[in-house]
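On clarity, I found the account of how folds are encoded harder to follow than it need be. An entry of this sort, consisting of the sequence and the corresponding backbone structure tokens, reads as follows:
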Amino acid sequence: MPKPIPYLATAAAVALALSGCAGGSAAQPAPTSAGSAEGNAHVVKAGFTSKGGTVDVLMSADFQTLDPGNSNYVQTANVGQLYYRTLTMAKETAGQPPTVVPDLATDTGKVSGDGLSWTYTLKDGLKFEDGRPITSADIKYGVERTFAQDVYTQAPQELNAALDAKGYKGPYKGGADLAAVETPDAKTVVFHLKKPFAEFPALASRSNTAPVPKDADTKLDYTNHPVSSGPYKIESYSRGKSLKLVRNGNWDPATDANRTALPDVFNFSLSTAQATISQQLLADSDPNAITLDSNGALQTSDAAKLADAAVKDRVASGVLGCNDVLSLNTQKITDPQVRKAIALALDRQAILVQYGGRRFGQLVQSPLNDKMRGYAAPDSALDPEGKPKLDEAKKLLEGKDYPKKLTYGYANNRDAYKNAGTVVQQNLKALGIDVELVAIPAPNYYSVLASDQLPDMGRSGWCGGADPSSVRTSADPILGPNNDGTSYGFSNTSRYFDPKVSAAMYALRDTTGSSEDLGKKWAGLFNEALSTYPIVPLLRSYTNSVVGSNVRNAQMGYFFGGVDLSIIGVQH
């Protein structure tokens, strides 16, 4: 799920059962293989149940958006757990792929005999922050908004692509009704699909199904105060500066088995430099502090301090479902052989060093992994140890007319992103390619990647997909086509589109079968696309995040890429 859930980071995930510290007390280095990494996690002071106190969340930049209908980002999904609910929920377990559980709905959905309809019944006692009951119409309207891609350019599209929407363009086009979502009564929502979709309960956990009262919809201004359906509501929000969440008195804990809602207040600081965040957390200058910044805002030079006696027991850590890739703009770098040459020239070992080394990740050959149903390893020319193959790269470029000047875009809130760009710049100089580094404000990063200002190359993050155990829900968004199969898809930051492969992906969306069988077919097409190097797989993240000494139940969200806010507490 943008990392933006590309979420781009996106959403998904068992009822949580914390049972001590799964990975020991010290921050552990990431294992060498994606498969063995699962389960290696450390939860800080688990089992805490006392309510009260304030959590201070230090961040280097504002959220891309707080509007659940315009969000494809993991940070928004993480904080969103506090102020909005969805039909089902991506519930995290430390160090493990998440599992879908009921949230607003009484179960994860009932499917019809032909697999084309999924029905959800809302729980009793659900209310918005103003006391109004949450109805099926509010769920439907939340979904309808996400079809208005001319307004909400970052709206998640996985659920929408599965619906039999018949060209629906949102509620603002003449007040049209989305017939693919029926509300026969105030507590029932029925989704009608184009084809059976076994993972639909995971799609229902996406922020599309967060309820939105139609009379409160202020379109793009809705980000300033989304109406709460969760345990907290927005008391104040100053864009780029601060956000304060306080308890929502109309949230009934009897309806919500997933959120502990322990703190009274969450205070977010949205403009603190990462180096400052890192130093403050290591020094424990604010015992109530955490961060949601990537890799816990830790600087490369701070990595050794994680083993210090005063720090090691305050480190939440674990492998994530998140991968970083280098996206190559296929509309600018059109020749697959040139893209392959660029990929082979890269020193991925040196890029990993810029992220902090093996303590913060492991090199991968694909953004998919062997825990996914139907996974197949790619036949990659990349050196698995990350070493460059410069001679092979130069040979591929012989006699070719290729771009001699390229831009590398990076989010300006983390030195590792810029430093990785410097490695790319140095590597490609050996191919006669001059790379210009372009800093992009972090809150706008993925919006730029989706715009006409897309750089020629740029780092993208992808966290799992709607169902992190499914090849299908990651392969399609990363390199698949759009909802009508005519161009590249919404989360496809490389803008990869091949008439043959993309058409086969589009057709596969309408294919029935088991998740395992479909996963194998998706993996085959994904690997075929990957062989043309629209993206260069870099690393799978292993994150360490230092928290204040008063913070309890701090675990790294497998999907969120940061401390899971839904269960955190604070000693006070």
